Amino acid sequence: MQLSERLTAGATQLGLTLTAAQHAQLLQFLALLAQWNQTYNLTAVRDPLEMVARHLLDSLAIAPYLSGDVVLDLGTGAGLPGLPLAIIEPQRQFVLLDSNSKKIRFVRQAVLELALPNVTPVQTRIETYRTTQPFTTIVSRAVAYTEVIGVLRSGLLAPAGRLLLMKGRMDTLPNRQAWPPFHIHQLQIPFLDAARHIIEISFDA
After folding, report:
1. What letter would DSSP give residue 103?
2. Which of 88, 110, 90 is nearest to 98 (CA)?
3. Count of domains observed in the chain
4. CATH number of the domain to which 196 belongs
5. Where does S-adenosyl-L-methionine bind (predicted)?
6. Secondary structure of residue 63 in the 3-state scheme
7. β-pairing, 70-74 with 119-123?
8. What is the average per-residue pLDDT within 107-115?
9. Residue 176 among known ligand-binding residues
């Protein structure tokens, strides 16, 4: 199965309908990631076909859980999940934050080449980032909850906002008794034989 076919089949299994332009942008992002990965080691996944499941479909699977108009992707790395989500959710604004300069350089280049006006890359450390506009959703694919919870106290999350933590196996959660109430959603990622979950924490107004 070729990249285009796998993306189409995977999106269909996720219940997503991609426009031709979105489909092309997602594949363009994948090609750019594979190209940069040869020099900058942005991701451990090298096979573009495997990237469809592990990066594109894994990111797109959380689209139904987004809330509101402004989304913060904490520890975005190579733009995941923020860039794929921004491609299929053009009505939302995304801030992609990471402290790694080479990864943010890639994200900036991807935003430029993909012509994504709804994405703002930011290079800074999580604990020092501040904004005048709180986010309705904060998502993180790579940052531990213990790091994120301190950020929440700084006012980054809007009232009634939603925190989405993307996880693999759910055998253990450190300091679970200290967490606010949360829901765990099990995800089925097409073409990916690995456990994937979302920890959703909603904060009342």
Report:
1. H
2. 110
3. 1
4. 3.40.50.150
5. 75, 80, 126-127, 141
6. helix
7. unpaired
8. 97
9. no
| Residue 141 is labelled as binding a ligand | yes
Q: Would the pLDDT of 205 be above 60?
A: no
* pTM for the model: 0.93
Q: How many Cα atoms sit within 13 Å of 55 on the Cβ side?
A: 27
Task: Please tell me whether 126 is known to bind a ligand.
Answer: yes
CA distances from 189 to 6, 11, 12, 19, 27 (A): 12, 10, 11, 20, 18
Check pLDDT > 90 for residue 204: no
Predicted pLDDT of residue 160: 86
**Nearest one of 134, 145, 58, 63 to 95, comparing CA atoms:** 134
Contact (CB, 8 A) for 42 and 101: no
Do 74 and 110 form a contact (C-beta atoms < 8 A)? Answer: no
Give me the domain span that covers residue 59. 3-202
pLDDT tens for each residue of 50-73 = 899 999 999 999 999 999 999 999
φ/ψ region of 72 (left if φ > 0, alpha if ψ in -120 to 50, else beta) reads: beta
Tell me whether residue 196 is annotated as binding.
Answer: no
Which secondary-structure segment (H or E) carries 189? none
Going by their DSSP bridges, the two strands 196-202 and 183-187 should be labelled as: antiparallel
113 is in an annotated binding site: no
